[in-house]
Write the structure tokens for this entry.
Amino acid sequence: MRRASLWAQGLLGSRKTQRSPAARETAVLGMLEHLGAVQLDTISVLARSHELVAYARLGAIGRDAVEAAYWNGDSAFEYWSHAACILPMSEWPWFAFRRRHYARKGERWHGVPRKQLTGILDRLRSEGPLTTGELGGAKKSGEWWDWSDAKIGIEWLLDIGEVVVSRRVGWRRVYDLPERVVPGDALYDADDDECLRRLVQLGGHSVGVGTASDIADIHRLGITQALAHIDDTDLVEVSVRGWDQRAWASREALDWLGTSSRERSRTTLLSPFDSLVWNRDRMERLFGMPHRIEAYTPAAKRVHGYFAMPVLHSGRLIARVDPAREKGALIAKRVTFETTRTGAPVSGAIEGTARALREAATWVGAESVRIEQVVPAAHRARLVAQLSP
């Protein structure tokens, strides 16, 4: 099931380098369509997570191409899926159930300044796309949570579908009206059953093979919602050896499993926000690696590091790297190898980690790789030797 999941996530097979900007942008958009959702996050170490997701699948394609594809204004939009995500524009109708949910609820965590909403919409109609800064500023004070009324209002309108974000300038969202951005054939709201059926199906295609919980987690649906609609999708119920829960597979994944394909997996660093490892229970079930994001853990209590990135090699997760950048170098502040019962790194872990670090350094324009802490420490010299020219 591990290989089927890697295939469904676009992490198997070699990738040809795309030469022209248009070809690179097309490759990124194809990846987005295949995955269905790419998570956004403010943390930037080697790069922001949405860039790392494309890099993991397409190689050192160029960060400009990734940004141009995501924010071209026509092909994708931002909305709440697994979390805040970039989604293919064609999926706009299927998130209507969530837009209606927010509208019925009346607010999220901020009270909505309703007197300002009409004025915000009027400005968008008359002035065109605007950032929060252009609408009046994002914050009342220096505290990250202390949003201005303009910020609360525009984000509420985004929640309920009265505005859409399909572009960013730098890291600033650009808000516009859906009728100016969403293509006519996608500019409608599907009913709740249609939405849930479609999102369950998309979740099944994203995992390849998974339990109802795995499938529901892709777009953060309830397990009950997934089970209520799964029989109306094209997913096929299957039995998975060693799993004590019911499971379903996409027909494409089953067809692929039925071939003799031996596509090799990418060797790469994975963002901890990568959709392959979103679901920590599933991650441990498939790869045997318990993992959590420690960026929000006090430094003294971190085990693997602030932004520990799993290393994928030969279809397995073989190590974790906590990276940083400094004066032309990629720094591995901590490398933690997955080990066998004897305490030795699993087969290929040192070579695979060195390869992943070299490629990542090339991608971010670092001239060298510096290794700091290695666990187990006895294998530091061998890793350093693998990185030598």
Summary: Residues 192-207 form the longest helix (16 residues). Residues 62 and 363 are 7 Å apart (CA to CA). DSSP finds 16 helices and 13 strands in the chain. The chain has a mean pLDDT of 92.
